[in-house]
Amino acid sequence: MFDNLSEKLGGILDRLTGRGALSEADVDAAMREIRRALLEADVALEVVRSFTERVREQAIGATVVKSVKPGQMVVKIVNDELIATLGSEGQSIDLNAVPPVPIMMVGLQGSGKTTTTAKLARRLTERDKRKVLMASLDVYRPAAMEQLAVLGRDLSIDTLPIVAGQQPPDIARRAMEAGKLGGYDVVLLDTAGRTTLDEEMMTEAAEIKAAANPHEVLLVADSLTGQDAVNLARAFDQRVGLTGIVLTRIDGDGRGGAALSMRAVTGKPIKLMGTGEKTDALEDFHPDRIASRILG
Ligand code: GDP
């Protein structure tokens, strides 16, 4: 089988072993395969362009030594650049503020916001020993509010009591008030998503942000998102100012290109990854794992 990038680049470049430095022509042949691999991994086109340009610059003129095959050498350049672009590990949630620390979750409907809110609440409670209050601001789907309440009951983590008819910014203010009065360390605000990017969702997110002044604004995004990932991340970052990204459904069979796309356009760290439906399926971000998935 010659279907992974490493083998393809080997096929193109390994005949050059011992011939000095990689020329532009050698590298350009390899770049076509790299571009194809990234597109197949669902990396957005504009990100593929800038990424391959950086790899190209590093690869041209690289000395071909006898001990390392040229194909492997370029794969290493691609891998290192992927990891560098994806960012470093250990970018944890920043709780360094006066409690209750507000954390706002944004994203499209179905991206995993509510589940991630519960996962994060569980981690902060069990691992970090914080007292957490969760609040659903999804006034459009009463089932979403109920879903968070059920998760809270299962985890023995408090949720803000539901008051019918209240608008999201008012719920955010009430959550912060309850957070102060109840001596909570962290207040997690689970906002409503829409099925597509729309102006209403962005306006509402901006209003909630103004009301709660969140210390972290986390974009919860499905790692299976393809070309749309850049628009999604860019729109949320421009309108509400993200502090980090949580990638969900890493357990799926997606190739992880969305991670590279979102990180590249926003420059914001990917802080966590969701690896399953259960509330303990939340892990720190590991760029090397995503890089090897993208490489196939
Ligand atoms: P929301 O509309 O953004 O609040 O999305 P939900 O939290 O309701 O999640 C939508 C669906 O995705 C639910 O069935 C979740 O169980 C599922 N889900 C969320 N995160 C993950 C994950 O990391 N892996 C898997 N396999 N499923 C997830």
Automatic annotation (TrEMBL):
<feature type="binding site">
    <location>
        <begin position="190"/>
        <end position="194"/>
    </location>
    <ligand>
        <name>GTP</name>
    </ligand>
</feature>
<keyword id="KW-0963">Cytoplasm</keyword>
<keyword id="KW-0547">Nucleotide-binding</keyword>
<dbReference type="GO" id="GO:0005525">
    <property type="term" value="F:GTP binding"/>
</dbReference>
<dbReference type="GO" id="GO:0006614">
    <property type="term" value="P:SRP-dependent cotranslational protein targeting to membrane"/>
</dbReference>
<comment type="function">
    <text>Involved in targeting and insertion of nascent membrane proteins into the cytoplasmic membrane. Binds to the hydrophobic signal sequence of the ribosome-nascent chain (RNC) as it emerges from the ribosomes. The SRP-RNC complex is then targeted to the cytoplasmic membrane where it interacts with the SRP receptor FtsY. Interaction with FtsY leads to the transfer of the RNC complex to the Sec translocase for insertion into the membrane, the hydrolysis of GTP by both Ffh and FtsY, and the dissociation of the SRP-FtsY complex into the individual components.</text>
</comment>
<protein>
    <recommendedName>
        <fullName>Signal recognition particle protein</fullName>
        <ecNumber>3.6.5.4</ecNumber>
    </recommendedName>
</protein>
<keyword id="KW-0694">RNA-binding</keyword>
<comment type="subunit">
    <text>Part of the signal recognition particle protein translocation system, which is composed of SRP and FtsY. SRP is a ribonucleoprotein composed of Ffh and a 4.5S RNA molecule.</text>
</comment>
<keyword id="KW-0733">Signal recognition particle</keyword>
<feature type="binding site">
    <location>
        <begin position="248"/>
        <end position="251"/>
    </location>
    <ligand>
        <name>GTP</name>
    </ligand>
</feature>
<keyword id="KW-0687">Ribonucleoprotein</keyword>
<dbReference type="GO" id="GO:0048500">
    <property type="term" value="C:signal recognition particle"/>
</dbReference>
<comment type="similarity">
    <text>Belongs to the GTP-binding SRP family. SRP54 subfamily.</text>
</comment>
<feature type="domain" description="SRP54-type proteins GTP-binding">
    <location>
        <begin position="269"/>
        <end position="282"/>
    </location>
</feature>
<dbReference type="GO" id="GO:0005886">
    <property type="term" value="C:plasma membrane"/>
</dbReference>
<dbReference type="GO" id="GO:0008312">
    <property type="term" value="F:7S RNA binding"/>
</dbReference>
<feature type="binding site">
    <location>
        <begin position="107"/>
        <end position="114"/>
    </location>
    <ligand>
        <name>GTP</name>
    </ligand>
</feature>
<keyword id="KW-0342">GTP-binding</keyword>
<keyword id="KW-0378">Hydrolase</keyword>
<dbReference type="GO" id="GO:0003924">
    <property type="term" value="F:GTPase activity"/>
</dbReference>
